[in-house]
Amino acid sequence: MTTHAPQAAHTVTLPGTLDEAVAALAAMPAAVPVAGGTDLMAAVNSGLLRPAALVGLGRISEIRGWRYLDGHALLGAGLTHARMGRPDFAALIPALAAAARAAGPPQIRNAGTLGGNIVTAAPTGDALPVLAALEATVIIAGPEGSRREIPVSHLLAGVDLLNPGELVGFVRVPLLHAPQTFIKATGRTGPGRATASVALVLDPARRGVRCAVGAVAPMPLRPLDAERWVASLIDWDGDRGHLDPQVTTAFGEYVAAACIPDPLPAQDGSEPVPLPPAAIHLRRTVAALARRALGRALA
């Protein structure tokens, strides 16, 4: 798996089913599951991780595809970014496809998986704000064939964690059949880690707007007040795209201020320390992304 750390793992198990993988983890508590390995092997090669054993998930075909289920898409955790970026998937969940295409260079997109993005939970994970905006859930496989389902946001926030021997098997995503978009800013031209990202989806059935901001905090942030405010100004029964440009601009600023707020006054009543220039620049970036995301979704 790597030439830099050949002694990192003494045992490699390659199960053929999800339940076999769970059983392997139960039998080897020190084992680490690995799918694409884009984050895991980087940690191994840098010396940050030395797993005693690995449980490879690459042969588990049941988690490498997707299917329809009761108005939802049931996505296997082993879906690669490259697969999610294809046109047939983009027609199903456009924002997730856009995030997958922006995940990095081809070698990363071909190896990295949806489940790995979730479990690694890196703040810059491109799929995470999309899943938060879509209010997706994860189906977790446990010992003896058990399954439980929790919101992705609970897993990312640490409200509910994976227990020993559990694996993320599937992701359930509502099919809204409505405009949605994902935009990110990077520190350089071309594919790269996000300095900020915004996912935005419209939910006409509920007359709602859902927005999630990634990379600016340890987990995606939902500016709920900004969502409700702009949703109240959209003509859901008429021309949704006919929204005053000043509203989209104000929405961007509303989102940015919610995610990167001004410092609170000091307890002694003195003036608060102003935001540093880097935070001001990041706030402007988030405002621009949110404004553009709303404009594209309404277009």
Automatic annotation (TrEMBL):
Residues 4-178 form the FAD-binding PCMH-type domain. SUPFAM superfamilies: FAD-binding/transporter-associated domain-like. GO terms for molecular function: FAD binding; oxidoreductase activity. The keyword rRNA processing does not apply. Keywords: FAD, Flavoprotein, Oxidoreductase. InterPro entries: Diverse_Substr_Oxidored (IPR051312), FAD-bd_PCMH (IPR016166), FAD-bd_PCMH-like_sf (IPR036318), FAD-bd_PCMH_sub1 (IPR016167), FAD-bd_PCMH_sub2 (IPR016169), Mopterin_DH_FAD-bd (IPR002346). PROSITE patterns: FAD_PCMH. Gene3D superfamilies: 3.30.465.10, CO dehydrogenase flavoprotein, C-terminal domain, Uridine Diphospho-n-acetylenolpyruvylglucosamine Reductase, domain 2. This is Dehydrogenase. It comes from Streptomyces violaceusniger.
